[in-house]
Amino acid sequence: MTGEFGLIDRFFKQRQTQRKDVQLGIGDDCAIVKVPEQVRLAISTDTMVSGTHFLPETDPAWIAHKALVSNLSDLAAMGATPAWCTLALTLPETDSVWLSRFCDAFFELASYYNIQLIGGDTTRGPLSITLTVHGFVPEAQALTRNGAKVGDWIYVTGTLGDSKAGLELILSAEQTLDDVSRELEKRHYFATPRILAGQSLLKQASAAIDISDGLISDIQHILTGSGVGASIDVSRLPISEALRQYVGGDMVKAQQYALTSGEEYELCFTIPDENKGSLVSALSHCNTPLTCIGQIRSQGQWELHHEGNPLLWELAGYDHFQQEK
Amino acid sequence: MTGEFGLIDRFFKQRQTQRKDVQLGIGDDCAIVKVPEQVRLAISTDTMVSGTHFLPETDPAWIAHKALVSNLSDLAAMGATPAWCTLALTLPETDSVWLSRFCDAFFELASYYNIQLIGGDTTRGPLSITLTVHGFVPEAQALTRNGAKVGDWIYVTGTLGDSKAGLELILSAEQTLDDVSRELEKRHYFATPRILAGQSLLKQASAAIDISDGLISDIQHILTGSGVGASIDVSRLPISEALRQYVGGDMVKAQQYALTSGEEYELCFTIPDENKGSLVSALSHCNTPLTCIGQIRSQGQWELHHEGNPLLWELAGYDHFQQEK
């Protein structure tokens, strides 16, 4: 667990969230932690690589935020409460300005979600960040992808499509500094992991996933895992005012963005009909927008429609975006 | 937890060790596992980067072995019993031959140590492997770096110096295929994580660490953590017959290798005088060679000697090797 750079003491031991269940944190061969009785441990790993997931010159604070959010979002999708994480950081050189900005942002967000960094490895090489996160879920209550039933309602949190638009703006040569562009760019790097919503869905939802590859791609995991189909009304996809302005009011384009935008870190989940009434009150303390976008159908049934009218553009759009990935 | 390549199903779901404490393995946003009551969880992360930790053309089976061993060794150094791991694999391209060889070796070794792969992320980028391992330790019994006391005896497992010699052979332009070279090269990639020895040391040792950066560097972590010094007799360092032949019988050179060779994955540990008698029998089932190389002294006292005679070469040698790192 020691790194080549000897940076661990300087940057990673300081300003830490101190959880009582961490018996031994950074600085030994392993961390030692205590898992409460009658909970299960949820564990996930995500890597972000320079040039693949972010541009090399990206602000290290943004990289730290995106890396932690993408991992916290996996915990949110299980309804888990964040507990601890390990960080494997590969850097081309020792750059204390870079590290300082990275760590400031990392620890601020980690502290907000009460997740403690308990170990890591700093190595020399092409810039990449691998986080492994750990959280708690009540016994036999985790939100999986496998529980959706025919007739369940399909919901998403927040708005969809912004992250893709933000990424386009970041990658475009033109520097745009208007409010709409800034909002979309911010949405790409500073998404909100839906931790509170996920926890509140534990007793409500039949299945859940976070939107990391794009709604149309991620929802397939629920459909495959649960052995069901789905019908989605694209006119109900939640579109932000910023995205509406970005596409110049072209709602077909906005809906295509909403279907295919990755790294949204919103939740997509299914709700049995009998829970539909209690859903809004169960999530009222989260301040998380919820939108019903469709319903679970029998296996093999899969349709996108617009207020009941079949869509002609959907499959072409879908394939096109799949190839882009 | 989904990857860009869609390789997870094909390569990582198959041929898995199936542990009963894994409620949900690969394939959802998180894995869900159960931690037994009255144990603590030991967690560690290590990264290996192509060009830094291995040559790009290295046999993927060797890479898999080295990556898993370096992580298992961290569990061994805490006296932990392996349970689960996650694997973040970054690859420049989808290469099913490479993946197949990597996975065959990975799963064979994982199965031997009863550690189950419960999640991962495959991403596109420069070749690197990050593993996060989880193991169990009895409550309040983990082997840390902080418990060494003045008078404790300092031990190491196995032999030291082979890994450094093996790496030199691997990096040298000359292809040497004699038995000695093969043995040393194998030792570099196929070290034995001292899991059984670590477990057996739980009630015996006052402190422990695994030798990943070199004995002289790693033992400093015990001395600093415990607030003590040490006296080491270099004539007692365990040298393999292969290393003896490699250095042409030059025992000073062999001892310098033993002091500075990294990636040995042997354990260095301290034993209170009252446990010295029971140590050999406590570890008799492990078939692990043990050598007493010195004794813990008061803080500030640090000496390398040769059968009681002070060494003149030691500090120069130490600094030299430190600079090479």
TrEMBL record, chains A, B:
GO terms for MF: ATP binding; magnesium ion binding; thiamine-phosphate kinase activity
Domain (PurM-like N-terminal): residue spans on this chain: 27-137
Binding locations of substrate: 53, 263, 318
Gene3D superfamilies (UniProt xref): PurM-like C-terminal domain, PurM-like, N-terminal domain
Top enzyme category: transferase
Database matches in Pfam families: AIRS, AIRS_C
EC number in record: 2.7.4.16
Binding site for Mg(2+) 5: 213
Residues annotated for Mg(2+) 1 binding in this entry: 45-46, 121
Residue positions binding Mg(2+) 2: 46, 74
Catalytic activity: thiamine phosphate + ATP = thiamine diphosphate + ADP
Entry keywords, A to Z: ATP-binding, Kinase, Magnesium, Metal-binding, Nucleotide-binding, Thiamine biosynthesis, Transferase
Biological processes, Gene Ontology terms: thiamine biosynthetic process; thiamine diphosphate biosynthetic process
SUPFAM superfamilies: PurM C-terminal domain-like, PurM N-terminal domain-like
Domain PurM-like C-terminal: 149-300
Residues bound to Mg(2+) 4: 29, 44, 74
InterPro entries the record matches: PurM-like_C_dom, PurM-like_C_sf, PurM-like_N, PurM-like_N_sf, ThiL-like
Amino-acid positions noted as binding ATP in the UniProt annotation, renumbered to this chain: 120-121, 145, 212
Other facts: Reaction mechanism of ThiL seems to utilize a direct, inline transfer of the gamma-phosphate of ATP to TMP rather than a phosphorylated enzyme intermediate.
Family that this chain belongs to: Belongs to the thiamine-monophosphate kinase family.
Protein name: Thiamine-monophosphate kinase
Chain's gene name: thiL
